[in-house]
Amino acid sequence: MTRPEISSERLWARLMALGEDGALPGGGVNRQALSAEEILAWRRVIAWGRAAGLVASTDPAGNLFLTLEGTLSYLTPVVAGSHIDSQPTGGLFDGAFGTLAALEAVTAIVESGLRPERSIIVVGWMNEEGSRFAPGMMGSELFAGLRPLEEVMAVRDADGISVGEALKSVHDAFPDIAHRPLGFDIHSYIEPHIEQADVLETEGAVIGVVSGIQGKKTYDITVKGREAHAGTEPMERRQDAVQAFARMATRMHAAMAGDDVVKFTIGRVTVEPNAPSVVSAKVTFRIDLRHPANAALDAFGTQLEEIAAGEAEPCSVEIRRLVDAPSNGFEEGLKAQIRASADRHGFPRLDLLSAAGHDARQMAPLTRSAMIFIPCRGGVSHHPDEWAEPAHVAAGAAVLLDLLLEEAGVSCNQGDA
Amino acid sequence: MTRPEISSERLWARLMALGEDGALPGGGVNRQALSAEEILAWRRVIAWGRAAGLVASTDPAGNLFLTLEGTLSYLTPVVAGSHIDSQPTGGLFDGAFGTLAALEAVTAIVESGLRPERSIIVVGWMNEEGSRFAPGMMGSELFAGLRPLEEVMAVRDADGISVGEALKSVHDAFPDIAHRPLGFDIHSYIEPHIEQADVLETEGAVIGVVSGIQGKKTYDITVKGREAHAGTEPMERRQDAVQAFARMATRMHAAMAGDDVVKFTIGRVTVEPNAPSVVSAKVTFRIDLRHPANAALDAFGTQLEEIAAGEAEPCSVEIRRLVDAPSNGFEEGLKAQIRASADRHGFPRLDLLSAAGHDARQMAPLTRSAMIFIPCRGGVSHHPDEWAEPAHVAAGAAVLLDLLLEEAGVSCNQGDA
Asked: Rounded to two decimals, what is the model's pTM?
């Protein structure tokens, strides 16, 4: 038998096809978690998996699994994939590349006629993006037992729909797939992903050996002012929530100066009553803070909380901590395998840190974990212009296939024996 | 015949009844322009007017008129009233007091058996508040020929409904009222209103003789940045529209320091895509600037435009001027009449400037115009807590009645002759 090889044409065609589920008029996708568009995407991915003989299942967290059964059922499985939900104006590669590359690698193994000793499970984690339901990484956090199921199911989107309600409509759409309990033991976890920055592109590398994921903190800050008439209320008597927000945002941004690697973003701002001639009663905003060094992350977090408290007057402020995820590193053995595979194929490679958060962050404390990055054009992501070259997509899947063969115990010399 | 007298009980009862149209659960009203709630309010006001023998009509701008025919049809009419639309979380008095006080005064004249020489027209101007359709003062601006009808009719609300479409549904709801052409000659215009500040209350006055309305400028500012991933895009490469907005807002606010009477408000802010982990591509915000002195108003306006341009980088900015209304003064003869009436009734009075804009601003260049203010508790307006004392409501209507008798030529000695 021949060594399995991925079909780069099929993988690319499937990436493009998946981009039709939630396609935006000007390009890119809006395929938010547990939406009607994501149901369409599940339908496609499940059909592709079944065509290769994989068995579809889900769990109480709404994660999607496609399993290739191994020959030794007592061994723990190898898991590979990412997520298929997107930002509201997202691209075709963030998440989708990881899940479809894993599906392609497993399909290649099946087509070669070989069987792994360990089962291989292709995963699509529920709500990685956290745009519709905040915060993200819900599926992998629930899998890892980091948050109570009831709490996550109660989170509501802007229309008042809860995760539990939305998940029920997804599960109802697939009455014929198995439901498995939440969480199981894993031999190793490998997640391919686009880099979402331009380090690989700048350095001319094709494969990124991810050393770890930078730490992240998020906060919801609520500034409470007092509604008043814009034409009559004297300036010195106002409790203007928009102005308190603006002061906080400006000072917070200034506090980040001088650190080359910190990432500080206020991406969501909600003003009430948001009427042109009314002094604002309330502003709610989300802070997204990231840093590779845990000490610096903690110090910046403390500083942001101090600024929010210090600049609130004459308004009041409430600070709610959402995500508090320290920086983590990936497993040395898997990183060595990625390097060896890249070298074998002749793909230029680079060790680098992930600036973006990924589901692999939640897997790392549970099992041997790794991430394989491929370049994305100009570092653009979370945007319809997000783009990865077909050759790089194929390279990432080829390296993943090498790792799956090794991790799941596929002997490519079976036929020669 | 006896001199006409208003019924303070009836006026108060009607103010409370009108508050049921668009009533909010916790008090106050949401009766925005041309809404289903405003249709209910029209229905009530027209019924009350007809019960007093007034004739209802409307015009292409959607203004509501209730006419008491005078005996000398060749004389131009006296117009009195205000508006019956509200802010989304408005009170029971802003606007409604003026229109219902005028209706009460005219009803008192009818009930006394006297007839004015000039017609008296009670008015409810279309969309004074400008919250659903921006900017406000639409009905009076159209009446005064300050804006093209087509342009105003094309303005859309947040749901995409145009003024023209909403107005059609109002007009369709009242097939039996007359349609008159836009604009007509007026002998004099008098608008009673709550003060929306606390000068009268603080000074212990009941009647405000309004010297003029402070000038106002509004702007729509659009800051364009570039969408990017919150976890990966280096800080120095970002074009973060939220941060550019925050800098502008903070510097603009600081630029107002040291001026006791300027009013500067950013009440509406819209962020796109408004996703927690996406650097913002766009922020649109509205500036509301007011000042009683036109030179200062212009200087502050220029300064705001300079700050918007200067703080935009690395984003780009578009500055759109919406309202540019200079400060104006009211007619001396009418002000003298208000003072004389207040003194005759024994109502403590005060000359003061209006900090809020009113439809009377548009009438002042057209005809002899005046405003009668009454106190509102704590100066609170554009809020469900807005409140005026029944005695002050009655006082304002009584002074208006005196002016209408004089202006419309009602001889109270007719019976004695």
From this structure: 0.72
Q: Residue B288: which of B245, B252, B244, B329 has the closest Cα?
A: B252
Domain ranges of chain A: 8-213+328-416, 215-325
A230 vs B89, B232, B288: nearest CB = B288
pLDDT average per 10 residues of sequence, chain A (417 residues): 90 98 96 98 98 98 98 96 96 98 98 96 97 94 95 95 98 96 97 95 97 94 94 91 98 95 96 93 97 94 98 97 90 98 98 91 95 95 94 98 97 55
CATH number for B8-213+328-416 (one of 3.40.630.10, 3.40.50.150, 3.90.550.10, 1.10.287.4070): it is: 3.40.630.10
Rg (CA), chain B: 23
A8-213+328-416 and A215-325 agree in CATH topology: no
B329-352 pLDDT tens trace: 899 999 999 999 999 999 999 999
Question: Distance between CA B132 and CA B187 in Å, rounded?
Answer: 32
B361, B362, B365, B370 alpha-carbon torsion, rounded to 10°: -50
Q: Is A380 on the interface with B (CB under 8 A)?
A: yes
Q: What is the CATH topology of the domain spanning A215-325?
A: Alpha-Beta Plaits (3.30.70)
Token pair for A221: 């800050």
Of A123, A94, A71, A103, nearest to A22 by C-alpha is: A94
B102–A contact, CB cutoff 8 A? no
Cβ proximity of A275 and B87 under 8 Å = yes
Q: Is B382 left (phi over 0), alpha (psi -120 to 50) or beta?
A: left
Give the Cα separation of A22 and B258 in Å (integer). Answer: 53
Say yes or no: B39 contacts chain A, CB-CB below 8 A.
no
